[in-house]
Amino acid sequence: MDWSILIEKLILIAIIVVASLVVALYSTYAERKVAAFIQDRRGPNRAGPFGLLQPLADGAKFFFKEDVIPFAANKWLFILGPALAMTAALMT
């Protein structure tokens, strides 16, 4: 395989990935703005200019969230329970 074709394909893949990420970011922003309009509130305007940093703030909040497992609970069953329930629901 010629190296120029490989490099061309990798550049094309990178462009598609970046474009997909930009579309996902814009879709999230637009969805929040539309939801704010429908609910008659201001929307995500507290983090950065025009609320553009709100997804980063949400991601940081989610990343630093603590998992609380009850003391008397079976740890593995408590963690795997939602996945098992979803698997059973999708298989029916």
Can you describe this structure?
The protein has helices at residues 3-38, 54-63, 75-91. It has 92 residues and is mostly helical. It is extended, with a radius of gyration of 21 Å. The model has no long low-confidence stretch (mean pLDDT 86).
Largest sheet: none
Number of H- or I-type helical stretches = 3
Uncertain regions spanning at least 5 consecutive residues: none
Could you report the average pLDDT, rounded to the nearest whole number? Answer: 86
End-to-end separation in angstroms reads: 46 Å
Number of strands: 0
Question: What characteristics describe this protein?
Answer:
92 residues, mainly alpha
Helix-strand blueprint:
Layout: H1 3-38, H2 54-63, H3 75-91
In short:
This protein is mainly alpha-helical and 92 residues long. Helices cover 68% and strands 0% of the residues.
